[in-house]
């Protein structure tokens, strides 16, 4: 079946009028079916557009939030350079660093602001924030160490069969072993071309 290519309508013909008159002649039931069909066809596309717009808005908000944090640290750096005795600048820079995950810098800044703060109320507030940040820092350190241990254990488990085979061979040369066996060893070690 050959595809028929329609010529573009230049509105010289009466086709648009014919189509309009046909729509007018459509019964209410047919119109309803037609509208339902259009809605079913368009709904997935509209949902996808909505999801993409929502994701774009979330990404833009995250970018703006990160930018504000960076600007906050920059502004606090300027304030600290201009007036090193300004406790609030040290405190705010510490909080901005903490919000970005720079806990080491945040702890240093909050320590400085706590030592400079004269009021007991301000000092206790800084102390509370400092404890929270220290706990968060320690939690992230432990999570990182745990991930490293899990990766090391997994790597050890993957290499264990190859190590056992090498130990069983007594460190002898692998010459004479079937190539399939050597290929399995290479895969277990994770480095191709390791054995002859």
Describe the overall structure:
It is a single chain. The chain has helices spanning 15-25, 28-82, 87-99, 103-116, 120-168, 179-189. It has 196 residues and is mainly α. It has a domain at 32-156: Alpha Horseshoe (Serine Threonine Protein Phosphatase 5, Tetratricopeptide repeat). Helix 2 crosses helix 3 and helix 3 runs antiparallel to helix 4 (103-116). The longest helix is centred in the N-terminal third of the chain and has 55 residues, at 28-82. Residues 192-196 have low confidence and may be disordered.
Helix-strand blueprint:
Blueprint: H1 15-25, H2 28-82, H3 87-99, H4 103-116, H5 120-168, H6 179-189
Helix pairs in contact: 2-3, 3-4, 4-5
Largest sheet: none
- End-to-end separation: 60 Å
Give the averaged pLDDT, no decimals: 77
Order of helices and strands: HHHHHH
Q: CATH first level of one domain: which class?
A: Mainly Alpha
User: What is the radius of gyration?
Assistant: 35 Å
- How many strand units? 0
Supply the CATH architecture of one domain.
Answer: Alpha Horseshoe
Helicity range = over 70%
Global geometry: elongated
- Strand portion, in percent? under 5%
List the uncertain runs: 192-196
Structural class: mainly alpha
Keywords: Coiled coil, TPR repeat
